[in-house]
């Protein structure tokens, strides 16, 4: 019992609503949820809150969850988006009970609309959109009735049927619900139910040339599927009254009546969540498609190297609330960093290489050093690395005149090569412009890590990673930064959000030196580049052309990108 009380205290407000319904007699076997995306774009991190909530409730209450595509606008919807949404949800590990489409219900919705016309609850309006906007009034000024509001049932039925037959142009007639033009909720002022659209639908083809509006379709689809709790984001709170009014017209008391409740949407700083704006980024070629790793889409996050577990964790930490809030994108980055720290193997990569020559190491000699794959995973084991006379280190890890407080290699200053030897800088070789192109060093033969000698335990201030100059693979690294330079890129209505695009959101680094273990790395494999960050093999990567995308740096905040 104590555990039950503890669980109740931790319930979010949606779960509290469901628990209250169950206490009042609603049968648990009638619980049913749905995730209802519109197939007019790719899913993004904002949608993750909705699908994690709905599928999470399904798992918690052992209730079915439908995937329903609200496909009522053929001018913006495509099969590509349907396929992408299903792929993303499957990748997230979510399994739906039924795959449904609002277009499945077009005939039933039409038949109900006919009944509403016959009952005097709907009429065909022939005003222009401008005239309708004027007669609708304002939040403080009541609307006025349409001059066509009192058409006879027979005339309305005839016009609506002719709309369906395709006799009229788009915008010539619409079907409106007859509610109250003076209602304080403007959404209740005779809302549009159907409009003429001479466009082919991705599922129904040219069967229809009238299409139902979202508000008419959504609640009735919930009802047809017997959804118990219809969960929407807060912008639909004002729509709830209309949702219920439409249900009143069709509800049978013997069936479950869906209950709409609203939660706050997920907003991230340095990000835009509008599908319309994301579409602009794609169409204007500011990004390289919906799966560009700079995009907040699920496909973009996947290509960047995010894991389903990290996204689930982020949504869990962000929580479910009634109040709009802006979430720091650093929280999302922290969740993927924490997950990858536990699950990725460590490897050595040098993004801005500087060659070192160990002058007292025998020419032609190589040896094996053992490197730990992941200290966070006791089952990850070790791998072999090849050590040689010539190696590469990061250029930033060398400073010719290096102070004692700076833990880098310098002339006359020692560092340890990770998993290897202690080395000492001897001479910097420069080109005609004075740039260091090579560093001559010596190594301490007895200092090899793990060799058991006294020298192997000698402490030096500074450890650097390295890759053999003769045993490596070259790769391209795409270093991604945030796509926008300001926290609220679409916060100013008078300013084009695209003016805040970060010109340094992508830095392509070629000829990076990667240890040989990754020569056959496959797309979507993830690694930690030691001392640099987390990286994922890009979808376009091949063994002949390795490409890695930076997922996240090792610490909060983006590190300075190599030149």
From TrEMBL:
The similarity comment for this entry is:
Belongs to the class-I aminoacyl-tRNA synthetase family.
- Pfam families referenced in this protein's UniProt entry, alphabetically: tRNA-synt_1c (PF00749), tRNA-synt_1c_C (PF03950), tRNA-synt_1c_C2 (PF20974)
* Species of provenance: Vicingus serpentipes
The EC code for this enzyme is: 6.1.1.18
Show where the Glutamyl/glutaminyl-tRNA synthetase class Ib catalytic domain sits.
Answer: 31-341
Domain Glutamyl/glutaminyl-tRNA synthetase class Ib anti-codon binding residue range list: 345-444
Work out whether the entry's keyword set contains Ligase: yes
List GO molecular-function terms, semicolon-separated. ATP binding; glutamine-tRNA ligase activity
| Name used for this protein in its record | Glutamine--tRNA ligase
For the keyword Nucleus, the answer is: no
GO BP of this protein: glutaminyl-tRNA aminoacylation
According to the entry, every stretch annotated as the tRNA synthetases class I (E and Q) anti-codon binding domain falls at: 463-538
Q: Which UniProt keywords apply?
A: Aminoacyl-tRNA synthetase, ATP-binding, Cytoplasm, Ligase, Nucleotide-binding, Protein biosynthesis
The record's Gene Ontology cellular component field reads: cytosol
């Amino acid at each position: 019992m104590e555990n039950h009380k503890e669980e109740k205290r931790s319930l979010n407000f949606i779960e509290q609503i469901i628990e209250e319904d169950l206490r009042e007699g609603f049968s648990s076997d009638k619980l049913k949820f749905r995730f209802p995306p519109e197939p007019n774009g790719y899913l993004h991190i904002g949608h993750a809150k909705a699908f994690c909530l709905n599928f999470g409730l399904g798992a918690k209450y052992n209730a079915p969850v439908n995937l329903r595509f609200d496909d009522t606008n053929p001018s913006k919807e495509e099969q590509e988006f349907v396929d992408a949404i299903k792929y993303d949800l499957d990748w997230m590990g979510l399994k739906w009970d039924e795959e449904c489409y609002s277009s499945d219900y077009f005939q039933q919705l039409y038949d109900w609309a006919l009944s509403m016309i016959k009952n005097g609850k709907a009429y065909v309006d022939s005003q222009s959109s401008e005239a309708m906007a004027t007669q609708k009034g304002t939040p403080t000024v009541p609307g006025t009735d349409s001059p066509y509001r009192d058409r006879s049932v027979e005339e309305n039925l005839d016009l609506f049927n002719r709309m369906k037959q395709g006799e009229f142009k788009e915008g010539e007639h619409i079907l409106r619900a007859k509610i109250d033009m003076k209602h304080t909720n403007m959404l209740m002022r005779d809302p549009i139910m159907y409009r003429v659209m001479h466009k082919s639908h991705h599922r129904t083809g040219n069967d229809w040339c009238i299409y139902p509006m979202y508000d008419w379709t959504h609640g009735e689809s919930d009802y047809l599927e017997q959804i118990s709790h219809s969960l929407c984001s807060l912008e639909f709170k004002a729509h709830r009254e209309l949702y219920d009014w439409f249900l009143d017209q069709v509800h049978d008391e013997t069936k479950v009546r869906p209950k709409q409740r609203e939660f706050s949407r997920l907003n991230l700083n340095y990000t835009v969540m509008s599908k319309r704006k994301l579409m602009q980024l794609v169409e204007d070629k500011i990004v390289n498609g919906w799966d560009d790793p700079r995009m907040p889409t699920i496909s973009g996050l996947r290509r960047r190297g995010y894991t389903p577990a990290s996204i689930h964790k982020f949504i869990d930490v962000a929580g479910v609330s009634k109040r709009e809030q802006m979430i720091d994108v650093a929280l999302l980055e922290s969740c993927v960093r924490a997950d990858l720290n536990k699950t990725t193997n460590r490897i050595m990569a040098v993004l801005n290489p500087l060659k070192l020559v160990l002058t007292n190491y025998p020419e032609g000699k190589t040896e094996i050093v053992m490197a730990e794959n992941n200290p966070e995973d006791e089952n990850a084991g070790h791998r072999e690395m090849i050590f040689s006379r010539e190696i590469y280190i990061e250029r930033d890890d060398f400073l010719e005149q290096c102070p004692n407080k700076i833990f880098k290699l310098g002339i006359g200053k020692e560092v340890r090569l990770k998993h290897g030897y202690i080395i000492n800088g001897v001479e910097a070789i420069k080109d005609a412009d004075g740039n260091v192109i090579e560093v001559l060093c010596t190594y301490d033969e007895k200092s090899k890590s793990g060799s058991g000698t006294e020298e192997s335990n000698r402490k030096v201030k500074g450890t650097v990673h390295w890759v053999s100059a003769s045993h490596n693979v070259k790769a391209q690294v795409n270093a991604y930064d945030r796509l926008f330079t300001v926290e609220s890129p679409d916060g100013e209505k008078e300013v084009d959000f695209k003016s805040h695009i970060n010109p340094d959101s992508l830095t392509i680094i070629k000829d990076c030196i990667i240890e040989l273990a990754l020569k056959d790395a496959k797309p979507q494999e993830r690694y930690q580049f030691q001392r640099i960050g987390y990286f994922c093999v890009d979808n376009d990567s091949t063994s002949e052309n390795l490409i890695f995308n930076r997922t996240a740096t090792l610490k909060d905040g983006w590190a300075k990108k190599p030149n």
